[in-house]
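TL;DR need structure tokens for one chain.
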Amino acid sequence: MEKYMTFRDFLINNIVYLDGGMGTLLQQKGLKPGEFPETWNKSHSDIITDIHRAYFDAGSNVVSTNTFGANSLKFSGSELEEIIRCAVENARAAAKLSSSQKEKFVALDIGPLGRLLKPLGDLDFEDAVDIFKKTVALGVKYGVDLVFIETMNDCYETKAALLAAKEASDLPVLVSNAYGEDGKLMTGASPAAMVAMLEGMGADAIGANCSLGPRQLKNVMMELLENASVPVIMKPNAGLPRFENGKTVFDVSAVEFAGDVRELVEKGVRLIGGCCGTTPEYIKELNLKTKGMSPAPLTDKGITVVSSYTHAVKFDATPILIGERINPTGKKRFKQALINNEMDYLLGEGIKQQDKGVHILDVNVGLPEIDEVSMLTAAVCELQAVSDLPLQIDTASPEAMEKALRRYNGKAMVNSVNGKEESMEKVFPLVKKYGGLVVALTLDETGIPATAEGRVEIAKKILAKAAEYGISSKDIIFDTLAMTISADKMSANVTLEALRTIKNDLGCHTSLGVSNVSFGLPQRDAVNSTFFALSLFNGLSAAIMNPYSVDMMKAYYAYKALRGLDDNCSDYIKNADSFATVPAAPAQPQTGSAASQQAQGTPGSSASAASSSAASVATESPLMFAIVKGLKERATELTKELLKERKPLELVNDEIIPALNIVGEGFEKKTVFLPSLLMSAEAASGAFEIIKAAMPLAKEAAGDKPKGRFVIATVHGDIHDIGKNIVKLLMENYGFDVTDLGKDVPPEVIVEKVIEIHAPLCGLSALMTTTVPSMEETIKQLKEKAPWCKVVVGGAVLTRDYAESIGADRYCHDAMETVRYAEEVLA
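>> reply
TL;DR here they are.
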């Protein structure tokens, strides 16, 4: 049956059946260890076509091309084009040959690049976008119906891929991420955070695939359904893998799989299929189990939200605090720091505010003496390297706004747009493209209305214009403009009346720059805090404020307690001791600080960059604090100074290693996420390099003798080296002598190196099921030729039982577990 509607049309009223795994089927058909599956599109087109046809015959509406790893990092330009051309032709041929009468679509399959983006890795964001664009453009050229971005485990790379798909085509785009057992991506993002970013950027459907079986994925799916207003995708593995009679098998049958997925379809999942270990039989069972079911209706959840690379912050009953201190207005020292490009000063301001409990950081670097475009982008990227708080990008320059929004990792708050036609025409297209919650000032070409009614009318005009761009009212937050009461005694009342009307009658959220109300008056904190309390009572959703102000924080925590937003008054009690101690105008923050544990009870937040024990070392040990917080420049500066008075080994044992342990233990307890772990490791590396350079015997100075030799490699056929690189960095910081053989390494090369240096430990990494046979062969050769060497393995497709079944001595879930095992083996 010929397709008669577009995929977007079909998605509206139907449950969409996707396909299942490709890698395991290719292995059964003879794919050799180390062989790229994508090359079979040309060399074994009949096999690829038969697999696609089997999925169509089993009931798939959408078959994904065999292009998961097809990108310009892996193939030359001509090779890439030929692979994608053949891949699309194979899928199209399968659709024609299929006996199924269902609607059929071909999706361009896009997987991760296998490299971390800066600052955690070495791949620039724009380079990643360009790589994905090349693949998408070829898919469009050869006639795919949609783009399916899948198995992404990093928020930032997911954004790069979606941005590329949007800029290179107008096709529907499905986006699916790979969540771990903790319900988060490898780099820490929650499902709610991913929904905020992806929905804001215009993904047609959002979901989860790979890593887990359907039951283990249930909590992730429920969080996606709770937050998403677009269709939700579920594409789990066939349970957990194991090695049996020389073959990889999975522990969930097709019937059990289909029954588990059906339960989630009843909850609202609308696109269903399978990943690793699933076959056409699984898709057939899915069709049988869900036969006659209608898709759950889509509802706009109406959630006003921003996000960082780890968590979402929702605007609801609990007011949101936006730290105002990263702004040169009225701050002489901050202005000088911007002119001198003292980024550590700016980062220190950000982190001190996070320590005070703000939920969002306002970032304004507008000065005529500097290049605001480059400085704002740099500030956004640098802040996100050390803090997991969402940011408010605050600029009057559309160019600076676009550059910063493009590089922002998450869904940002945008400050601001106003009722002037010129402003709306410049800002709304940016918000539509990149996503964002935009602050709308209630002024227009006539100025700021003197009445509340005038400001509300401007708000209505802004909402109408936003709708023309496809921007919902949930992504507009109104600032009714606090004016100084020293110039107009009724100005505060007008602001509050407009705020109350917009909140109650228009149903929109509101924000205020609270401190403007007291300009020109003495004892401003008294006025600010009282006005803040009045604003909160009248429905204020968020305040741009000074978190160092004791009076402001008193008002905030008291309001929460009085309004029933603080269970057992726990936040109020926890912060009460600080109310009588900290002055409103703080001493300038120490540079070299980073994200700390967020205050408990903050809305929509997650644990951030360092464990709470980090704060206790802040005053006693600046070097430990810098390493825990992840600031490399500050750590290197402090190390240089400390070496004038202390011995190198003393610094290593008393400062650097304990700091790494703080972060490592936080990572193991899931209170610290991968980006923070890596930034701390980089800061420690910077300190180590200074120690080495300052002493004639580098290794002895950096920690006496190495703990032991460690060979590490990504196995033959696998170009994904993120996990390997993370392990390498951590092992080096803990004093091991690491030999990194790189990615796509043949077994013979690994064995030869282990024998050459008589390494007692070897680490092997693999991301894809198709490369596990290479890992098994490597282990086999190591056991035969280097029996003294222990083999530790890791990777998304592995489990402890599976690792044991292929002969590994140890499976490690993450880098810190590898460090602990190495210390145990080499003790």
